[in-house]
Amino acid sequence: MKNRMRHFMAPGIAVLLLSLSLSAQAQLSKIVFAPQWIPQAQFAGYYIAQDKGFYQEAGIEVEIIHPSANIQATAMLASGKADVISLFLVTAMSAKDKGLDLVNIGQTSQHSAILFVTKKSGGISELNQLNGKKIGIWKSGFDEVPKALMAEKHLEIEWVPILTTVNLFLLGGIDAMTVMSYNEYDQIINSGLNEDELHVFAMSDYGYDVPEDGLYCLQSTYEKKKEELGRFLLATLKGWDYAATHKKYAVDLVLRQMQQAHLQANRMHQEWMLDKILEMMKPGTKKVKQGELLETDFRKAFKILSDYNDSEPHYSFSEFYRPTLK
Q1: Span 109-133, mean pLDDT?
Q2: How close are the terminal C-alpha atoms of the chain, in Å?
Q3: How many structural domains are present in the chain?
Q4: Looking at the domain assignment, is residue 20 inside a domain?
C-alpha cells in the first residue's frame, strides 16, 4: 500500500514543482538591454551574467540586442526597442541635452580609452600639427570628446566619418585616426604597423580622462523599474567580476556571440580588448565604488560639453545620475 502511495504521489509532486517553476519564470521582470556597439569583449560582463544565470538569479529576464554600425543605441532607447543601453558618459549627456530624457543608473567604466593615432612617417609628432589635417572618426557617434579637445586647441580639422575599419588610415587616406585603446589601436598594430612606428595622443593626457561606458534608461523606465534595474546592475557587475577571474571562458563566450552575429572573430584581439576594458573599470586613484558615477567626473564632462557647444546643459547631477545601488 505504501509503495502504491509513493507511485501515485510522485506525479502529483512533479506537477506541483513544474507549476511552481513556471510561475517563478512568469514572474521574472524582463529587461531588454542594448550595448552601444556590435558583439565584442567590451560587453563580456553582460554575456556572462546572462550565460551563468546571474540575471535569472536576480529575478530578471534579460534579452541582449545589438545596434548595427550605423544605428545608435540612443535611437533604440528612444523608440522603446531597448529598456537599458550602454553609452559613453559625454554622449549620454549630449543626448539628454538634446531632449532624450535618459538617466544614468550605473557607471562601469571609470576612464577614457580614446586616442588619436598618426604614423611617424607622416611627420605629425605633436598635437598642434594636426591643424588642417584629415582625422577619421566613427560615424556611429562617440565623437564629442575628440572634437572638444580639437576645439579647445583651436585646431581646424577635416573630420572624415568611418564606418567600421581602420583601412583608410592604413592606406594613407587620412592623416590620423580616432581609435579606442582596447579596439582599433590593436587592430592597427596587428595590421603590419609596429607601435614604434606610431605617435599616440591619449585624451587622458590632455585633461580629458572622462569615464566612458555607463548604463542608461529613460526616466520613465527608472520610475517604473528602479528595483529591477538595481538587480540588473548588481548581476552585471557580478558578470564582470567573473570575467576578471575566468578570462578564457569570457573570451570563448564572446567569440560565440560574434560567430552567431556572423562577425569575424579573432581570439588574440578579444583577449587584448578584455584586458583593456577590465583595466578601465578599475578606479585607479579615484575614491569610487564599483558601478558609481562621481560628481567630479560629471562636472568634467559637463564643462567639455559647455565649452564645445558654447551652452550649458540644462540639468543637474541629481537629475542625470539616479543610482540604483544602496
Answers
A1: 96
A2: 56
A3: 2
A4: no
Q: Are residues 234 and 93 in the same domain?
A: yes
- Indicate whether 130 and 169 sit together in one domain: yes
Query: Mean of the pLDDT values across residues 9-17?
Result: 42
CATH number of the domain enclosing 193: 3.40.190.10
Residues 234 and 107 in one domain: yes
Of 206, 236, 270, which marks where a domain is finished?
A: 206
Same domain, 94 and 225: yes
| pLDDT value of residue 311 | 67
DSSP 20-43: HHHHHHHTPEEEEEE-SSSSSGGG
Task: Identify residue 178 by its one-letter amino acid code.
Answer: T
Measured CA to CA, the distance from residue 167 to residue 140 in angstroms comes to 17
Strand bridging mode 158-162 / 134-138: parallel
Cell of 263: 562577425
Same domain, 242 and 259: yes
Strand extents, DSSP E, 60-130: 60-64, 84-88, 102-107, 114-119
* Residue 193 Cα to chain centre, angstroms: 27
Per residue in 21-72, pLDDT (tens digit) is 444 445 789 999 999 989 999 999 999 999 999 999 999 999 999 987 677 8
Over residues 262-294, the pLDDT tens digits come to 998 899 999 999 999 999 999 988 899 999 999
Q: Please list, residue by residue across 70-92, b when 16 or more beta carbons sit within 10 angstroms of its beta carbon and e when fewer do.
A: eebbbebbbeeebbbbbbbbbbb
Which residues does 99 contact at the CB level (< 8 Å), separation at least 6?
A: none
Query: Is the domain of 135 the same as that of 217?
Result: no
Domain presence at residue 193: yes
pTM, to two decimals: 0.86
What residue numbers bound the domain in which 169 lies?
114-206
pLDDT of amino acid 310:
66
